[in-house]
Amino acid sequence: MDAFAQSLIKVARPRDNEMKEYMEKSLRTGGGKVPSWKQFLDNDRKVLRFFCTSEDLPFVVHYYLADDTVEIREVHHPNDGRDAFPKLLQRQRLPFKSDVNQPGLHFIGDNYLTADEIHPDQPINAFGRDYQINGVDQYTQEYYMAKHGRCFERGEIQMPEAPDATVRQIPPYNGFGNEEDTLGYIYDLIPKKPKGDFFKSVDNDKKILRYTARFNTRVPEDIDRRFIISFYLQDDSISVYEPAVKNSGIIEGPFLRRNKYKNVDKNNEWITPTDLGIGADVKINGYSYHVVSCDDYTKKYLQAHLD
Fold it and tell me: Where in the chain is the domain with CATH 2.30.29.170?
């Protein structure tokens, strides 16, 4: 035979099974391929669900029967303090050995987790971390009982109970500023401007009830002092002005700035015009006043609205 005729003879080369396995695994993420199309067609969309815990944290392990792949999902609840990563392990075949081999070395035999190797009393090991099985769903329980004769307990995702609501303690009003403004610092970090009654403010704009009052006291210097109490119907606020009295030695001017005040004798309710009757005694900001009289506009308003 000449050299050309000899080159036409086909020589059977030995099949490199290791190279074939490597090429098949490199074509699919996670390694390996579906052994047969029958497994995929029979078990497509059939998933085994295991409710597990690892290091006191809840997880859900999904086992896909179509291609024997495993997926591990994290379970989150509000305010758990963990980053919201949906998956701890991407869907892939789960090897028994997770060590990194040297170039040229490979795993011997079929060393990936399969459904028949999961037992109710044994944890699922994923890359060196154990996941203790606490329960399964209904389909997984029926699957293992019918096919492998194993009894798995039914379970579900265990969410922690909501903590008891913290009772918000409102400190007593210290007398500085408006009480509604002070409460704004309790309910909001950045306080909001309190909203008043818009229609009441518009209807009663510039309507003021004025009373003349004196102190309920026996102190000689304060017996002759007189005050003008102004009640603003716009927002139920009160201001007290002290007019000039000859030879009293007290300078006239505002005695109490305009604000809303409470009546300590009526369960700390806001002072209303009914508390300022002629001849009545009322305490405003710690001072006891005796109402002596009022102007004509106040008399007409009280007769029209309070009688």
Answer: 13-147, 196-305
| Type of residue numbered 188 | D
Question: Pick from 199, 233, 238, 240: which is nearest to 302 by CA?
Answer: 233
* C-beta separation of 48 from 68 below 8 A: no
| 186 Cβ contact list (under 8 Å, min separation 6) | 168, 170, 171
Q: Where are the alpha helices (DSSP H) in the chain?
A: 3-7, 17-26, 37-43, 138-147, 179-187, 198-203, 220-223, 296-305
Report field, pTM of the whole predicted structure over 0.70: no
CB within 8 A of 50, min separation 6: which ones? 60, 61, 62, 63, 118, 124, 131, 133, 135, 136, 140
Hey, what are 192's tokens? 């909001």
Architecture of the domain made up of 13-147: Roll (2.30)
Q: Which pLDDT does position 232 carry in this prediction?
A: 94
Question: Is the CATH number of domain 196-305 2.30.29.170?
Answer: yes
Q: Which two tokens stand for residue 279?
A: 């001849």
Instruction: Answer whether residue 24 shows pLDDT above 80.
Output: no
How many CB atoms within 10 Å of residue 61?
23
H-helix or E-strand containing 72?
strand 69-74
